[in-house]
Each structure stands twice: as C-alpha cells, then as structure tokens.
Amino acid sequence: MSDFAEIATTEQYHIDMEKARNNGTLAYNDWFNRSHYEDVRGFMRPASFYTELRPLPQFMDQYKERVPSIKYSSISPSSDWYNSNWDPNGPSI
After folding, report:
1. Residues 6 or more apart from 92 whose CB is under 8 A from it?
2. Do residues 33 and 14 lie in contact, with contact meaning Cβ atoms separated by under 8 Å?
C-alpha cells in the first residue's frame, strides 16, 4: 500500500467488462477467466494489461503529467518487429 499511488484498472478494462456482461454469463465468465489471475493470497486480480499505476486523488494535480504513450499503438507491417503469424483474434494471454 502506498501513501501516494494506487494500482487501478484502466478504462479499457471497464469497457471490455461491460461488453462481456452484455454478451451473457458465459461470455463474461470466459472473459474474466482469460483476463484475471489468482494472486498468492487467493484473490483474483486483473491481468497487468488492464492495470496502471495512478496517483491517489488528493495527489492527482501534483503528480500527474500527460506524456506521449505507445500504449495502444501498433507496429507497421514493414517493421522487422512485425509478426506476420500473430492472430489478433487469438488468445489474449
């Protein structure tokens, strides 16, 4: 536990959770099982791609700065790092 920051879920987490809920119980359970893990204490936690470190509300103005991010960018197919065998519809983990 930090006095300055918390690990919080991303906006995308809530969007995907709502989409899964709207598709029914089976879809939600499938999404939940694929995007969460059990920690050492037995609690289910969102996968790291659904979390971010965020200042606590009382420190938001003091410690928050907007900077460029590659968070949701994609690689050009002409890049040496592009994997032509990657299936975007494949498993998420």
Report:
1. 34, 35, 47, 49
2. no
Whole-angstrom Cα distance, residue 35 to residue 10? 13
CB 86 within 8 A of CB 42: no
Predicted TM-score (pTM) of the model is 0.63
Using the predicted structure, report yes or no on whether residue 62 has a pLDDT greater than 90: no
Residue 32: other Cβ atoms inside 10 A: 14
53's tokens: 């470190």
Question: How many residues are there in the chain?
Answer: 93
Instruction: Identify whether the C-beta of residue 5 lies closer than 8 Å to the C-beta of residue 53.
Output: yes
Task: Enumerate the domain spans of the chain.
Answer: 5-63
Q: Which amino acid is at 85?
A: N
pLDDT band at 91 (very low <50, low <70, confident <90, very high): confident
